[in-house]
Amino acid sequence: MGKGIVKLGEGNWAVKDGNLLAAKETNGRFKNAEFTVTRGTDATYVGKDGLISNETGDNTPRIDFTDNTDGHLLLEPESTNLVPYSENFEGGSWTNESIGTTPTLEGGYTAPDGSNSAYKISNANQDSFWYYPSVADSDDSRTIWARTVSGTGTAQLTSHNSNTNNTFNLTETWQRFEVNGTTSGTGSTSFYAVDFRGSGTLTELLVWGAQLEELSYATSYIPTNGSTVTRDAEIVRRVSIDEIDIPQEEGTIYLELKGYEKNTEIFNFNRSTSNSIHVFTDSAGALKVQAFYEPEGTGTAASVTLNNNISKVAIAFKNGSFIVYADGEEELNTSTFVWTPTTSIDKIYFNQGGYVAQRGLSKVKALKIYKEAFNTTQLDELTS
């Protein structure tokens, strides 16, 4: 289907420091089309083996395999882990407290990254908790990995025992547990790794990877060892694109993606003041497709209903026609579109931010750009 396409993803990923490689098809032949990546710090992701890996190449893109076997390009905002010792529960001010039996701590257990850095907290009772005092008290996201030593059970994790949203079911498999919003109780300025007071049924469990972020949602794990650590946002760009790469007068853009937060700019095509196309989430968290076209500043938008996983979105454009499909459903079809580029279409951005929304958390599984505007039958087939 289509001609002259750029293909990215679909289970075929090639990365190196500073670059994400796509395939450019011209007359049935493929060659590399590089996207540049800028981040500036280390960052973690879940590899094909299911283990957490730390990407030490500052500008290397992250292909994350959480919840899927094909992988996706992971795009995130800047965030800071405010817990200074995320893995060393003996370090810094980590401590236990108990009215009755004092819980014990034992290291050397296999962690979600494959190392022996996890801890077992045991010998606890209904008056025990393990916590780090004096961390930021805010509307935040608190996460920790936990599992049982054997069997199943419930535990209260990551915040004070007076919270009602922090009791989780644990199994023998590592899981990352998340609590969002302002914590309550007298100890709300502390990070509670595990709180045995209340409704938990376990007296021992394994923990690893404590994280506190001043965001309303959790991002990828940020390891710390003695101080807070900030991970930069990444930006993925393709600039100075010739006409063989990118359609100028008409084309179709296909994306498989998911946006996770409100006001997040995911994808930009050209990014000029006119004749540009953007995919983003709005202030209510709904996925939007918006185009700016002639006369300069005129805009049109289509709301797209996200499913629970990755959504398929296709955008066909040419002078006099702008059509948006999502997951096999027509979202917008207008004939008032005036697409007459005043400058060459020469830029593609992921997670650029600052135009219609900010940088946020999103996952991109595939991108294809065709040099023709598909009809409704083709768009339905492409996104179904």
Describe this structure in words.
The chain has 1 helix and 31 strands. The chain has 384 residues and is mainly β. The strands form 5 sheets. The chain has a 17-stranded antiparallel sheet that branches. It has a 5-stranded antiparallel sheet with strand order 10-13-18-15-16, with no helix packed on it.
Give a quick summary of the entry.
The protein has one helix spanning 376-383; strands spanning 6-9, 14-16, 19-26, 29-38, 43-46, 52-55, 63-64, 72-75, 79-81, 95-98, 104-109, 118-122, 128-132, 141-147, 153-157, 167-170, 175-180, 191-195, 205-213, 229-231, 235-239, 250-259, 265-269, 276-281, 287-293, 298-304, 311-318, 321-326, 329-334, 347-350, 362-370. The protein has 384 residues and is mainly β. The chain has a 17-stranded antiparallel β-sheet that branches. The chain has a five-stranded antiparallel β-sheet with strand order 10-13-18-15-16, with no helix packed on it.
Please describe the structure with a list of short key phrases separated by commas or semicolons.
elongated; 17-stranded antiparallel β-sheet; mainly beta; Jelly Rolls; single chain; 384 residues; 31 strands
Question: What profile does the largest beta sheet have?
Answer: 17 strands, antiparallel
Q: What does the radius of gyration come to?
A: 24 Å
CATH class of the largest domain: Mainly Beta
Total strands: the figure is 31
The domain count comes to: 2
Note poorly predicted spans.
none
End-to-end distance, in Å? 14 Å
Number of helical elements = 1
Task: Kindly report the CATH topology of the largest domain.
Answer: Jelly Rolls
Measured as a percent range, the helix fraction is under 10%
